[in-house]
Specification:
By secondary structure, this protein is α+β, with helices and mostly antiparallel strands. It has helices at 11-22, 33-36, 39-42, 94-109, 121-125, 168-174, 184-192, 237-248, 267-270, 292-299, 352-360, 365-370, 378-387; strands at 3-6, 45-50, 59-70, 73-84, 113-116, 130-131, 134-140, 155-158, 179-180, 200-206, 209-221, 224-234, 256-262, 278-283, 286-289, 306-313, 322-329, 332-337, 348-351, 374-376. It has 13 helices and 20 strands.
C-alpha cells in the first residue's frame, strides 16, 4: 500500500530524482551541499510516496507554502514543484497517489489553491489543474521603443537586494488580480538573486516615489546581444512609457530587447511600429481549487443574490467530485454539497480545472461555455460571470 509522507532529510535522493527527471542530458552530478542547497534550493517541504516497508521513495515532490491575492483578498496557497519519478517506478500510479496526497495535505492546512509549473499541460490537466495565465514575449530592436522617449519626467536608479521594499508598492499596484504575495526571501532569492547570473534591477521614480521598475539581464548568443526583461511593472501609462524608453536607451549596447510580460501590458498597442515587434505567446502556470465547498464562497466577487446547483467533475479527489449548491445573499456566499435528494439536472456542469479558472478570474463563464468547458444556459453563465468576473491573472516566476 502506498504511503504519502515527508521525505527524511536525505537530500541526495531528492537531488538524484530531480536531476534525472529534469536534466538527464547532464547525468546526475555528484551531490554538493554548497552548490545544490542554496537558499533558493532549500526552500519548501519535500514529500514522497513510499511502498510499505521501503525507505526509498517511489516518487517525490516539493511544496511551497505561499500566499496569493485574488481580487484584492489574500489566501493561503500551495506551490507544487519538483515532481519526479525514477524510470523503474513509472507507470505504477505513484504520481497520482502523490498528487492526491498533496491535495489532502493542502486541504488540511486550509490552502485555497494549488499552483504548479507543468512540464506538460496535458499531463496535469487530466488531474484537474488548468492554465492560470499566459505569458507574452515581445522582441524588437531597441529603436522600436524610442517612441516612448520624453513621455514623462522622472529618474532611474539601480537597486540592490537590500532595497527590495522600494519595489513592493509598484508590484502591488500592478498586480490587481491573482498574484503571489512576496516576502523578503522571495524578493532576495527569486528576483534579485538565486540565478547563475544575477539580474540588473532598476526603479523609476517621480518626485522621489517609485512608479515603475524592471528586472533584466543582458546576454550574448551567436553574436547577438539581448536585453531580456523578465519583469516589468508600472503604476500608470506614463511610467510604462518611461520603462520602454529605458529599454530604447540601450541601443548602443544591445541588438534586441525581449519583454516577458502579461497579456494586459499594451506593448503593441502603444508602439508606433508594431509590425517591427515579434510577439509570441506561451502558457504559464496551472491552478487548481483544493476544496470546492470552501474555495468557491471565499473567492466570490459579485454581490448579486443567486442560488445555483453546480455539478463538478474531479478526476482525483472525491470531496470535489459532486454536486454543490452555491448561494449568495447580501454579499455573503455559501457552498454545500447538494446531497442525494436533488431532483433534475444541475444549473451548471464543468470539470474542476475549468471551475478553477473561473474562480480566480482566468477565464469568464461565457468563454468556458463557448469552448464546451461549461454546460449552462445563457442566464446561468451571466450569473456566474457576475459572481466570478474575469480578472488580470499573472504569475510570471517559478517558485
Amino acid at each position: 500500500m502506498a504511503d504519502y509522507r515527508p521525505i527524511p532529510d536525505d537530500r541526495e535522493i531528492f537531488h538524484e530524482y530531480r536531476s534525472y527527471a529534469f536534466r538527464p542530458e547532464e547525468g546526475v552530478p555528484a551531490y554538493d551541499p554548497d552548490e545544490h542547497e542554496t537558499v533558493r534550493d532549500a526552500r519548501g517541504d519535500r514529500r514522497g510516496i513510499f511502498a510499505e516497508g521501503d525507505d526509498r521513495p517511489r516518487t517525490v515532490c516539493r511544496h511551497y507554502w505561499l500566499e496569493a491575492r485574488v481580487r484584492g483578498d489574500t489566501y493561503p496557497v500551495a506551490g507544487l514543484a519538483s515532481v519526479a519519478t525514477p524510470p523503474e517506478f513509472r507507470r505504477e500510479g505513484n504520481v497520482r497517489e502523490l498528487l492526491a496526497g498533496s491535495l489532502e495535505e493542502y486541504r488540511d492546512r486550509g490552502d485555497r489553491l494549488s499552483i504548479l509549473w507543468p512540464f506538460q499541460y496535458r499531463f496535469y490537466r487530466k488531474y484537474g489543474w488548468d492554465t492560470a495565465n499566459r505569458i507574452v514575449t515581445h522582441a524588437a530592436s531597441p529603436d522600436v521603443f524610442a517612441f516612448a522617449r520624453g513621455a514623462d519626467e522622472g529618474s532611474f536608479r539601480s537597486l540592490g537586494a537590500d532595497e527590495y521594499d522600494v519595489l513592493e508598492p509598484v508590484y502591488n499596484a500592478a498586480s490587481e488580480g491573482l498574484a503571489l504575495e512576496r516576502d523578503e526571501r522571495w524578493w532576495r532569492h527569486r528576483i534579485f538573486g538565486g540565478h547563475d547570473t544575477d539580474p540588473f534591477v532598476y526603479v523609476y521614480e517621480r518626485d522621489g516615489e517609485p512608479a515603475g521598475y524592471l528586472v533584466y539581464r543582458i546576454e550574448r548568443e551567436e553574436g547577438t546581444r539581448t536585453m531580456g526583461v523578465s519583469e516589468l511593472a508600472a503604476v500608470d501609462r506614463e511610467a510604462l512609457l518611461a520603462l520602454f524608453a529605458f529599454c530604447a536607451d540601450h541601443d548602443s549596447q544591445v541588438d534586441r530587447v525581449e519583454l516577458r510580460v502579461s497579456e494586459t501590458v499594451p506593448v503593441r498597442e502603444l508602439a508606433r511600429d508594431p509590425d517591427e515587434i515579434d510577439t509570441s505567446l506561451e502558457n504559464g502556470p496551472m491552478v487548481r481549487l483544493v476544496d470546492v465547498a470552501e474555495g468557491l464562497p471565499a473567492l466570490t466577487a459579485g454581490e448579486a443574490d443567486a442560488a445555483l446547483e453546480i455539478e463538478v467533475e474531479d478526476p482525483l479527489v472525491d470531496w470535489n467530485d459532486d454536486r454543490f449548491v452555491l448561494e449568495t445573499t447580501d454579499g455573503t456566499a455559501t457552498c454545500e454539497r447538494a446531497g442525494d435528494g436533488t431532483d433534475g439536472g444541475p444549473d451548471a456542469a464543468l470539470d474542476v480545472g475549468a471551475l478553477s479558472q473561473l474562480a480566480v478570474g482566468a477565464r469568464s463563464a461565457s468563454a468556458l461555455a463557448s469552448t464546451g468547458r461549461l454546460e449552462a444556459d445563457a442566464e446561468t453563465a451571466t450569473v456566474l460571470s457576475g459572481l466570478y468576473p474575469e480578472d488580470d491573472v499573472y504569475l510570471g516566476h517559478h517558485f
